[in-house]
# Entry
Amino acid sequence: MEKLRVAITSGYTASKHAIALLHEISALPEVEVVLLLQVKTFTFKRLKHLIRMYGWRDAWEKFRNIFLSSKQNRFAEEILPMNNFLNERKIGSTTTLKACQKLNVKVKRVRSLNEEDSLNSIKQNRVDLIVYAGGGILRNNLIRSTRYGVLNAHSGPLPFFRGMNCLEWSLFYNVKPEVTVHLIDSGIDTGPILKRFPWEVSAGDTIFLLRGKSVVKGVVSLLEVVSDFEHFNKNRQKQEIGQGVQFYTMHPFLKEKINERLRGGWLPGLLYNEFTQKDFQK
# Structure
């Protein structure tokens, strides 16, 4: 039986998320990671997107956290769960490029995942499945470039919680967090669901720590699905467009309100299957 040929994307060379996926998926006996699509970090378009998502202040702190290894800002807490994950598995690669060198994975550096050079590399390396680990919005030409498409770990429970900050929005509505592994289509988080993975909030967690835990849960979830992809793909669940709501970036005021509740010992109480339209309208 032929191995599943996988490409992994990465939004920047220091992406611990992508480094973890490169090492962990490469270790699967039934899978071969054949390509890394590495987006070039410093482009004006990406800077504008970062500022639009976080605002100037938070975008700068995010930049310092990722690229300057700053430990003097709120976002540093996000990195702790992934650092622990990498240490536990003895993954010492500090960049995606070093990981690929160690694992003998080809690298294609591109300004955009959707450009012609990216598509040509996918074709030349006979990629069956792309695993998304960042790099920007995907267009149909990339989504349809492989046999199975593009696999993503979404930070909220689909089909209802679509769009931005869905971990935070699910907490806002008292829903326990879940990661949803799904195939990307042309809509916003509307592609077929392969599996949802619930996980627990612990006493003392903050929004930033939970975001970090969500990233680790995403890696573990993708690993499980890729390890038996034929099974999960065969049993995938189609989403109905009318089932979900698209959420946008949560205002810092609301994030701080969630943090205050967490600091007070609050934990989310609803499983996603218990969540109803009535709860959303409260």
Residues 4-159+178-240 form a domain with the Rossmann fold fold (CATH 3.40.50.12230). The mean pLDDT is 90. Residues 187 and 241 are 9 Å apart (CA to CA). The beta strands are 4-10, 31-39, 106-110, 129-131, 149-154, 161-163, 178-183, 193-198, 245-247.
